[in-house]
User: Fold this.
Amino acid sequence: MDIFNGFKRTMGLAMAGKSPWGSGKGGDKGSGGSEGGSGESGGPRNPWLPGGNKNGSGDTPGGRRSASIEDIFKNRGPEGPNRGGPGGPNFSFPKRPGGKSFLPWVIIGVVALAIFMTSTHLVGPKEQAVVKTLGNFTRTMTPGLNFSAPYPIEVVDVEDVQGVRALNIPGTGEGAKLILTGDQNLVDLSYIVRWNIKDLEQFKFRLVQPEETVAEVAEAAMRASIAEKQLDETFSGQGRAAIELDVRERMQETLDSYEAGIQVLGVEIEKADPPSEVVDAFRDVQVAEQNADAARNQAQGYAQQVLAQAEGQAEAFDKVYEEYRLAPQVTRQRLYYETMEAVLSRTDKTIVEAEGVTPYLPLPEIRKRSTAPQPITAPQPTTAGN
Assistant:
């Protein structure tokens, strides 16, 4: 309690402009004279003041006195007492000629500019905008200059409705997308779905996350379509085209049932590969199938060739038989000669058993001599006497 009373007494002296160390003046005693003590200054001298000669009033030339509460609040700030300028104690807005302030006009201008900016909307040629009045949908803005109530009474949300948006499945950073085919095989598919906005009101207020909805619908449609196809169909060009068309139709039907306001423009399969774990075995199977197809095609070609030759020979025999019916003896001799010619043309030695005929005929030598080119003999020069 004594400590509290002493602190209270000290604060009272400070508020009265007095220092607990004495006022520094010889005749100032007052109510604190009894406490300040007697002497030249009427109390204890401030120990923080420098020593020196005192004048008649007790002031110390060149010294300083302790600051009072009023001095502390008067001289606060880095620029000393009574500092002015923007933000300072003496700052004020410029005055109009009549002496009134420009502040009301500044506030009115700022409010008018904000109203104009939030009430005027320029919608692009490929865009549309939805207007929400107090949080509820009221109308749709078409391309051009449009007006609305200022914010926050009406909120305008502009959206590109004709731009084509592409969605990659699987997305960046996702793993392989394995899908089961109709013949119980797995295929790794990656594809692109292209879409745009068909109805902006449904797109904004029917779906919470439109892109995620499109991705989920596309995956469900792709799995349903692949489940009806064989593995080979997913690798061929015609099979892919049929799958892409089927997926697009399934997606559009599902999104229309959701009233999503989305138009599916197309689906494009980028990659259709077997799983990475069995890709080597799958390639071996493909090579074996290609070899089998090649052998099968070669056998079919040979069979067609033999059949064509047989048909030609049968047709020729029919024509020979018709001639044989007209002249049997002549046709028989002709057939004999043709057969002998075909047989003897492939032999090197021929032995003929007949009277007056050489038994051995060197047919190859005769043939060579007949086909060998004859040497060209130069003409003999004639003499002048002849």
